[in-house]
Design a protein that fits this description.
39% of the residues lie in helices and 13% in strands. The structure holds flavin mononucleotide (FMN).
Length: 459
């Protein structure tokens, strides 16, 4: 990253749903329940901007969880991440009440068209004055496929092959307008320079798009690209395209190894590893004393119901966990079919069993509970110590902070931890600029970076 000192990047992990990523959060007495209103999300955005978060980021899934027992009733009755609103409108509402906070949303390369995504994010980037980011995902399960008129989700590596071409098209379209193409001179009547607006004429294996994109370039060139691939194929995709890369580590030792593996994937793609920020997901439970923080953590842990785990494991892994007994082992074939290979490998490695049981998946993944990600727990000093250790040990460049409940978890972090990180010189006291790229220390891409030479005609 540009600049001399390393600056910890902070991302708020948000969901356009009835709970945070921890389904028990909606059951928390202090959890806000006005999640169908703009005020709920605008409040979160204001808290994050006040705390100088670099980015507010929304994950997404294009179906409610209905793979467990082939039914959505349990998920709906228990509020297990069942409301999933479109994040575009929500991020726009947040953008209207903030001026520096980066605004990231997830869009799928498997279920949308490149032209649609290119236009949507280019417009979002203009309307937020260069604060937009796109989390590029290939999606995970058959429920999403069925909502888009397909019978089943595409095979894992094929999704990434398509996604590579999807990115080439989107970046090509984003390069349609050179930075100085607009003239807007009323005296000469000349609006824009046609020599500086380029068609794409892409006809590839999976996509075709003519262009030019009818949206001029934004102040940051184009939106920041986020990725979170974890498998071999996913990681090489992330290494090629990601500017911010999200990861999940079970602990610091594993984190250090994964961090260097991901940086190596960036270098293997011919890019500078310093141009990419790697951020693991985490929770923070902070209070005035260690005992109070631990009490808070245990209270939140107990908000999870057993149903949360099996519903969300079925959703993420595209496999009905209700079809097996708790103690029956997954066969090799069943393991191969699980949609999220990095997730599966984490459970195999943590359990030490090549064929884990349903109970092992529940226990070792922590899915549906706050145990899914590392929890930094304690006084502000103790939490900052843990974050500093991860950061200085080169296990990460920042964090994706998930909420134990909203808005309380972000408010606590802002009030207790941010001043301590700032005092230690680890975290910025103010935004460096107005665009997300400036604030992340990322270079501004040129319009010609992805022009036609990268694209090919396939008859
Ligand atoms: C912090 C984080 C957020 C993610 N958000 C989404 C999301 O919103 N939608 C989605 O379909 N996948 C999401 N994923 C899953 C990844 O895109 C990816 O599919 C997963 O890490 C498995 O990697 P693989 O595809 O290489 O097997 C997320 C992963 C992480 C670590």
């Amino acid at each position: 990253m540009a600049g001399t000192t390393r600056d910890m990047k902070m991302v708020g992990f948000l969901q356009a749903q009835n709970c945070s990523i921890a389904p028990g959060s909606w059951r928390h007495p202090a959890g806000a329940v006005d999640f169908t209103t703009p005020e709920y999300f605008q409040r979160l955005g204001r808290v994050m901007e006040e705390a100088k978060f670099h980015l507010a980021f929304f994950d997404d899934r294009l179906a409610l969880p209905d793979i467990f027992n082939s039914d959505y009733r349990d998920a709906v009755a228990n509020g297990v991440r069942v409301v999933k609103m479109d994040p575009v409108s929500i991020i726009t509402m947040i953008g209207a009440v903030t001026t520096r906070l980066g605004l990231g949303i997830t869009y799928s390369t498997t279920y949308y068209e490149p032209f649609h995504v290119a236009r949507l994010f280019a417009t979002l980037d203009l309307m937020t004055k260069g604060r937009a980011a796109w989390n590029v995902v290939t999606s995970l399960n058959n429920s999403e496929a069925e909502n888009f008129g397909r019978t089943e989700h595409l095979a894992h590596d094929l999704r990434y092959d398509r996604a590579d071409e999807f990115m080439e098209v989107v970046l090509g379209l984003w390069g349609s307008w050179e930075d100085d193409a607009l003239i807007v001179d009323k005296t000469t009547g000349r609006f824009a320079d046609p020599d500086k607006v380029h068609a794409l004429n892409h006809r590839g294996k999976y996509f075709a798009s003519k262009g030019p994109l009818p949206v001029p370039r934004s102040p940051q060139g184009h939106p920041v690209l986020i990725q979170a691939g974890q498998s071999g194929r996913g990681r090489s995709f992330a290494g090629r395209w990601g500017e911010v890369i999200f990861v999940v580590y079970p602990n610091l030792a594993a984190g250090k190894k994964q961090y260097s593996d991901v940086k190596a994937a960036v270098a293997a793609a011919g890019r500078n590893p310093d141009d990419v920020a790697i951020c693991p997901a985490c929770y923070v439970c902070v209070a005035d004393s260690q005992a109070a923080a631990e009490e808070k953590r245990e209270y939140i842990r107990n908000l999870a119901k057993p149903i949360d785990a099996v519903v969300l494991l079925s959703e993420a892994l595209n496999f009905d966990f209700g079809s097996k007994d708790m103690d029956s082992e997954f066969t090799d074939d069943e393991l191969r079919r699980l949609s999220w290979s990095g997730f599966r490998e984490r459970v195999v490695s943590l359990s030490g069993k090549p064929n884990p049981t349903v109970r092992d998946f529940v226990h070792y993944s922590g899915r549906g509970t706050i145990g899914e990600f590392p929890i930094f727990c304690g006084t502000p000093h103790a939490v900052a110590d843990q974050m500093e250790e991860w950061f200085t040990a080169r296990a990460c460049d920042g964090f994706v902070l998930a909420a134990t409940h909203t808005p309380g978890a972000f408010e606590d972090f802002a009030r207790y931890v941010v001043p301590e990180l700032q005092r230690r010189g680890l975290y910025h006291r103010d935004y460096a600029g107005t665009t997300l790229r400036e604030n992340l220390g990322l270079k501004r891409p040129s319009a010609s970076d992805w022009r036609v030479p990268h694209l090919r005609e396939v008859s």
